[in-house]
Secreted protein (Wenjunlia vitaminophila), 215 residues
Amino acid sequence: MDIVLAVVALFFVMTTALAAVAVVKTKRAVQRGLERHVPQARRMIEDTTLKARRVAQPGVSGQIADVRLAMRASLDSTRRTLRAACAEDVSLGESLALCDRLDAHARALEEELKVLEREPDKARVSVRLPELRERAERIAHSADTLRWAAQDRARRFADEELVELSRICEGEAAALRHWTGPEPAVDEPQESAPGSLGAGDPPKAFPGSPSPAES
């Protein structure tokens, strides 16, 4: 009886421990999913709000929204291009690191733009907004430069590979077209049979026939 109770108690403890481990793993997985998807959802909401503000508010708010959207679009496009290219060209890792540094500057600039949007002094806004727009344009241009360079690099590699592949295909096609028919058989000279006359042999005299000298 004691053994049965011990087995039941051990089974209960093991079941409880496994359930606790499963709960912890599930909680961590949910947290990772939230950490990954919540920023994306927040970013989508912000982009939608900025687009609506750019159209509905043509004043300072609309101008600031336009600056933020243009800078975000450039950085996002560059980041996607570099991440996709890094899978085949590891040398672009440094370019991706530079893009991350540009993104840090962009986030700092967006905070300044948010502060400027709430600034009640119109004179200060009119002075600061061109400066911040110029910084945003520099960030966007730097990101565009990285993206264009990565695209040109990928296109050049593709062109070189295509040239080499075309050369190989042309060589293979030439080899397929180069064929020869069966070689003609060479007639071997036949040996003269015993007793047959050669080209320079005098005719043999038969018994009873006059020799050539007597005729």
